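Subject: sequence -> structure tokens, single chain

Hey, anyone have a minute? Need the predicted structure for the following. Not urgent.
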Amino acid sequence: MFETMNDRGARLTAVDLLKSHLLSHVGENEDRLNTQWQEMLRELATDREDSTAASRFIKAFLLARCAREGHDDDRQQIDSNLNVWVRHNAAHLGLVPERPTTSCTSCRTC
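Reply:
Had a minute. Here:
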């Protein structure tokens, strides 16, 4: 539901949608992980005026660590719509349909 509506009436960003998707599959630790997500965003946004810092960081991370060699569409999709790319490549990222795993075997970053 969060993915289509929010209480601010503001348009959701790719980072908002990614967070919603990831946290919707975690189950019992959602509050703790939400707090960690917020802390990560605060650390990335050293300049309060830069509203794109988190998106740029996540895109850079995915491009550097998880985009597959020879899959040029990975790079284009990550750059244009990172949350959709993550959903479509859950198995590659080591995510299972119901919840993320503790380690990311494909991109070996965890």
